[in-house]
Specification:
- Helix content is about 30%, strand content about 15%.
- It has 10 helices and 14 strands.
- The protein is α/β, with parallel strands linked by helices and about 325 residues long.
- A 12-stranded mixed β-sheet has the order 9-10-11-8-7-6-5-4-3-12-13-14.
- It has one domain: TIM Barrel, CATH 3.20.20.70.
- The structure holds S-adenosylmethionine (SAM) and iron/sulfur cluster (SF4).
- The site of iron/sulfur cluster has 12 residues, from loops.
């Protein structure tokens, strides 16, 4: 089979692959999962390291994937992570290779990950106050995240980006404090609007902090000017902070959707292709692969899965239904 792009019926082409390596996590962020955790995927249905690398090879070699981001759950709890990164780098010497992580354990692993071929990390951090951090994540581990950030920068995994979600009544008064902290250290902060992807179905449109609110709060303390992002499909609206060089991004998936420019496709830890975070259907590459599908067969299934991508997530549509799987199982 020749290389065929992962194009949907609206003409969007997916070149950015998000690979979830596990649905498990060592934090319990309230907007993501309940305190007791979830019913984790059985080991037998989670892709092996060889299977993950094979599907990435199909994506890169046959389907035009140019960037791979490992996520989860928490990708750093996946035992084979460094080796998966090393093998992915062999598949694509020019691939943009990154992980999204909560940062726990990054202080220990950043150097090895960089040596294996990782380019960048995004670390999730919603507060730099120990108490608020543990209220949100239900674990007292702020110091580990801070150490992880420093190690990532020292290992050359930059620019280090920080993802933050603001929750009404919990950390929504800390936006400026977090931005000042990140700007001082050269970390690029991006605020993400809370999305209806939590396992507990606790999201509500009226409770979420909108992009407008975030900007209004930041503009009390900083002068923000629109900055041009070099990557057209990047979801973050980027602003220079007090004239730069520091920047802040807003990812307003709910109130300012960017579905028309989406270039993503997702692979879950159990080998299902999802053409959107909010997709209601998945395409099962794991079963096909375990039944002996060739690389060309897998590529063909993947192409078909992409064609059905919807025009938008439809969160504001009265008929919107939250996907069956939460963010931690899809791969955020
Ligand atoms: N465990 C890793 C981490 O926290 O970075 C990777 C997976 S996590 C699901 C990926 C990102 O999704 C994190 O930045 C997290 O804050 C964000 N996230 C989780 N649930 C969310 C929700 N309901 N709305 C918006 N972002 C969410
Ligand atoms: Fe874990 Fe990331 Fe979900 Fe927090 S957001 S519980 S760190 S998967």
């Amino acid at each position: 089979m020749q290389t065929s792009p992962l194009q949907d019926k609206y003409g969007r082409v997916a070149t950015d692959l998000r690979v979830s390596l596990t649905d498990r996590c060592n934090l319990r962020c309230t907007y993501c999962m309940p305190a007791e955790g979830l019913d984790w995927l059985p080991d037998s249905s989670v892709l092996t390291d060889d299977e993950v690398v094979r599907l990435i090879r199909v994506g890169v070699g046959l389907l035009g994937i140019r960037a791979v981001r490992f996520t989860g759950g928490e990708p750093l709890v996946r035992r084979g992570l460094t080796d998966i990164i090393r093998r992915t780098r062999e598949v694509g010497p020019d691939l943009e290779l990154s992980i999204t992580t909560n940062g726990l354990g990054l202080a220990r692993t950043a150097q090895a990950l960089a040596q294996a071929g990782l380019n960048r990390v995004n670390v999730s951090l919603d507060s730099i106050r120990a108490e608020t951090f543990s209220d949100i994540t239900r674990r007292n581990r702020l110091h580990d995240v801070v150490a992880g950030l420093e190690a990532a920068r020292a290992a050359g995994l930059g620019p280090v980006k920080i993802n933050a979600v603001l929750l009404r009544g919990t950390n929504d008064d800390q936006a400026s404090e977090l931005l000042a902290w990140c700007a001082e250290r050269g970390y690029e902060l991006r605020f993400i609007e809370q999305m209806p992807l939590d396992a507990q179905h606790g999201w509500s449109r009226s409770q979420m902090i909108t992009a407008d609110e975030i900007l209004e709060r930041l503009e009390r303390d900083f002068v923000l000017t629109a900055a041009v992002d070099p990557r057209g499909s990047a979801p973050a609206e980027l602003f220079l902070v007090d004239g730069g060089p520091a920047t802040v991004g807003i990812i307003a998936a709910v109130t300012r959707p960017f579905c028309g420019d989406c270039d993503r496709v997702r692979l879950t830890a159990d080998g299902q292709v999802r053409n959107c975070l909010f997709a209601r259907e998945e395409s099962d590459l794991r079963t096909a692969m375990r039944r002996g599908a060739t690389d060309d067969d897998l590529a063909e299934r993947w192409v078909i899965a992409m064609r059905g991508k919807r025009a938008g997530h439809g969160i504001d549509d009265p008929t919107f239904l939250q996907p069956d799987r939460p963010m931690s199982a899809i791969g955020g």
